[in-house]
Structures are given as C-alpha cells and as structure tokens.
Amino acid sequence: MLLRLPKKSSIGILRKISKMKTLSLPKNLTLKLKKYRDMRYGENPHQKSAFYLQDDDSGYEQLWGLQLSHNNLGDANHAWRLINEFDEPTVAIIKHGNPCGLASRYEIEEAYILAFGADRVSAFGGIIAVNRPPTISMIEKMRGIFFELIVAPAYSPRVLERLQKRSRKMRVIRADKPPHQLEFTRVFNGYLVQTPDIIVEPKSKWKVVTGQNPAKSVYDDMEFAWKVVKHVRSNAIVVVRDKIMIGMGTGQPNRVNSVKLALAQAKKRASGAILASDAFFPFPDNVQIAAKAGIRVILQPGGSIHDKDVIAAAKRHKMTMVFTGVRHFKH
Q1: Domains and CATH numbers, the chain
Q2: pLDDT confidence of residue 171
Q3: 151: Cα within 13 Å, side-chain hemisphere
C-alpha cells in the first residue's frame, strides 16, 4: 500500500527528497482515507476491492476501456514506476507484477518491437508502460495482440482515437510522474512501513572485482539491467543485451533456479550478455551456470561470506564481475 504525502506539507519534504533521495519515518501516522472508486473486483473475482485516497489527486486518469480491476491498477502502478527509471524512450511489458519485456531505443515504436519480441508468450494479456506519449506507428505495431492496459504520460487526440478504435476493452491510462511515497504492508494487527527503494548509485562507486574494466556500452547495459532488476520479485535475475531485457528469473526460493530461468528465456542471446542479480551470489554455482551460457559480465551487490570463491569462479571463466555494494530485494 502506498501513502501519498499531504499536499500542503509535502512541498518542503519533496524538495528535500530531491536532494537526499530519502523519506523519514514519523513517530505517529494518521491515515484518513476516502474511497475514490470501486475496482471491478479484487485479486480474484470473489474478492471486493476499492481505491482510496488521502486527497483528491489519484495520480492517474482512465481515458478509455473497461473498469479497472485490483490487479489492473496494481500492475499499472508497478509498470509505471519501473518505466520512470529511464530517461531514454523505453517500453515495458508487465505480466503478474514482473517485466517480461523491456527495451530502450531512440524511437518508441522500435523500443516496443524489441520489448515485445523479448517474450512474445508472456506478453499476451500483459500491461504496456511507455515513458513517452505513444505514436501511431507504435499503436499499429500492437495490432492483433491482446493487452489489458496501456499507461503513458500523455496521448495525442489522434493516438487516443486510434486506441479507442483498436479495442473497446483495453484500458487506457494517463499517469503523473510517481512521487516518493512511504510503502505500507499489512502485518498481523498492524503495518510495516518503509521508505521507497530509492538511492543514488553513481557508477563510479561500482567495483570491478575481476576481469576487464567494461567499455562504456557495457556500462550502459549494466546500468539498464540494474534499473530493471530492482523491480523484479526476488530472487531476481535479469539478462540484458543492447538495452533489451532478454531473460528474467523471479520468485524462486534459491538464486540458482532464477539464474536458470533467466538463461533459459534468453537462450543463445545470452552469449556475450550482462547478467544482474538483485542480491549477492551465495555460492559459485550461479557463476558456473552463467559462464556455460556465455554470459560475459555479472553485476551483483557482493557481500557474501563466499565472495572470494564467487570471484575466483568468475576469474577462472574469464568473466568480468562488478560489485555495486547495494541490494535491491523486492518481496
């Protein structure tokens, strides 16, 4: 659950956040919420759901399509927060709370083609997030493919008309840039409250622990992968090549299985690619599996008691390994 800071008190706080990239946890929190709208249903059709606000700003506007369900709005929010990590024109396709396709390019329609091509099977029934106003060309490329929802910062009248003709059902959402918000989770009779996973991570702080110092293009892919992996459910592994997420492993009780899933999706494209992990590799087996698939660079936080063994495995396979020093669990 996300808490929007009250407008009057948030101005100074948000200015401070823009510099510090952090929020404080107050001693006392009072939640006064009003129902904004009922959802179509909850996580399942037999559950009821509604969206509540602290003020009158929902942060989004539905311009077209069927009534939103609980899952629609949750996935749209997740997709929107992910896509806003990127400055270049970027398209993300989200399915069940995880990105199944994601790409950055100079032209938004090309980014869509590459994002969809990364996993055509999972994309069916997914949600599209775009960090630029979609173009007619991009909408035409979506022809014949079922998507539940599209979310973007704006739509031209022509594009909106085309989307309306394309489907009577697909939800069309315009969203504001996500603010920094405290995150709430119901636990027992109370709430867990945490600050968002926002931290300044200059690449100059990353440490090459073995292998060659990566070229700029490789660092660009590493930065792309690091932005994506923080939005994938743990244990999270992503495989990236040329600013395209070509493989993703998520939600596994052990990291080895997430590595296997990501590489199985990437297939032969994994050769020469970047592999990023949201947390440290506890054992060298992950490195050995990645090396066998042809991964050339591994990006991970480091910090395992077996770091020396993990680094040694990467060195044996002539791989580059980079430690970020920051973990990005998403449970």
Answers
A1: 33-175 (3.40.140.20), 203-323 (3.40.140.20)
A2: 97
A3: 28
What is the structure's pLDDT at 21?
A: 52
Q: What's the token pair of residue 25?
A: 């946890």
Predicted confidence band at 9 (pLDDT cuts at 50, 70, 90)? very low
11 pLDDT tier (thresholds 50, 70, 90)? very low
Half-sphere exposure of 215 (CA within 13 A, CB side): 3
Distances in Å between the Cα of 87 and the Cα atoms of 32, 91, 111, 131 are 35, 11, 13, 8
Q: Is the pLDDT of residue 13 over 50?
A: no
Tokens, residue 19 = 């510099």
- Smallest Cα–Cα separation from 251: which of 187, 185, 331? 331
DSSP 282-317: SSTHHHHHHHHHT--EEEE----TTHHHHHHHHHHT
Structure tokens at 100: 């199944």
Angle 98-256-281 from CA coordinates, rounded to 5°: 95
* pLDDT value at residue 22: 65
Question: What is the greatest pairwise CA distance in the chain?
Answer: 59
